[in-house]
Amino acid sequence: MPYNDRLFQLLQALDDAELESIWVSALRCKPDDQEFQVVSHEMKVALVSAEWRAVHGHTLRNLGRRDHQLPWKRILIDVADKLNPGWKWTPYKMDDSAQEEDIERKILEFFDARTKVAWEAMGEKDKAKFADQVNAEMAAAASASTTQARRAGVAQVTTASLGAASAPA
Questions:
Q1: Residue 157 has what DSSP assignment?
Q2: For a 10 Å CB count at each end of the chain, is N or C smaller?
Q3: CA 31 to mean position of chain CA atoms
């Protein structure tokens, strides 16, 4: 698979902190593996792409593949097949006309359905605990984005600041 497929495009849109989060939390790599902390943004994208494809590829088949040869669509089809309710696979095939974005959307639909079932099965205490965890993660993400915006010289936008900006002079 050539560079600059959809996975590359999605990763390229992320900032270095988001790439590091994927590298460490999702791919379970150490921050200093491959000197991840000090390489360029483009190299971080390439490292995450190569590792992601290696993790999701079949071990024996990976031996004959180059770093970025496993197609993003193949990974998506495998994920969709695993999330598909019941015993059947999804109708997606590598040579069909389905776009990667369509498969991504279907994966989100499967995930949403599973989440709803899990939520309905939770007791009230578990729901409250889960909501608290999500709120804490959202607050941390908001704080991180505010910090990044300040570093970039972007002022915080609020509904009040939007109203002030549009008020007649």
A1: P
A2: C
A3: 18
Distance CA 169, CA 162 (A): 14
Determine the pLDDT at residue 106: 95
What gap in Å lies between CA 137 and CA 130, rounded to an integer? 11
Q: Outline where the chain has alpha helix (H).
A: 6-12, 16-21, 41-56, 59-62, 72-83, 100-121, 124-151, 159-166
pLDDT tens for residues 66-78? Answer: 555 788 898 899 8
Cα–Cα distances (Å) from 96 to 93, 151, 165, 168, in that order, read 5, 45, 49, 55
Q: Say how far apart CA 6 and CA 13 lie, in whole Å.
A: 11
Map tokens 């639909």 to a residue. 109
Please give the share of the chain, as a percent, with pLDDT higher than 90: 37
Alpha-carbon span 121 to 126, nearest angstrom: 10
User: Coil, strand or helix: which one is 169?
Assistant: coil
